[in-house]
Amino acid sequence: MRIKENFMITNARGIPVSAKTLFRDLKAGEYKVLKGRRLVNGQMVYVVGALLPDGEYLILATDKNPETALEEYKKRQGIETLFQCLKGRGFNFEDTHMTFPDRIDKLIALLAIAFSWCHATGEWCHSQKPIKIKKHGRKAVSIFRLGLDHIGRILHNISELYHEFYKNLKIILGPLILMNSHDTS
Description:
Blueprint: E1 2-3, E2 8-10, E3 16-18, H1 19-22, E4 31-33, E5 38-40, E6 43-51, E7 57-62, H2 69-86, H3 101-128, H4 143-156, H5 162-181
């Protein structure tokens, strides 16, 4: 679980201090696993902290394997990013009024394909013209959003951009098209 840098955590002597205090010696890109369990919000847990390149602290509380907590959290970040794309930052999945599980399963399958297409398209667009980096060091737009916007522009003008649409389909269907073009049956 990620905790805020002002959360109170016991230090090595058992005295409560802000989480940030325990990691203030880190340089950007470094991490540290605190020795032993610490009291956090009434629970004895392991604590791991890192100073991210942008100067923000990433502090995690875990009940097991503190050495792998950061890697596990990175996986969770990827999942959270996917959920954001499927929900409010992309497809608005939460706005569906479907209630039948089999229909929801099919919709999720379609959204997974659409997400893959948008992400692959975004990667292609980024390779053609790199995304600008803002002053704070983050991309101006995500790879997914770049792809979603590109596909959206094409679909809104499909009658004029049919060839662009077909070219874009090749980004995700390319391997399938190549496999079928060698099929002699």
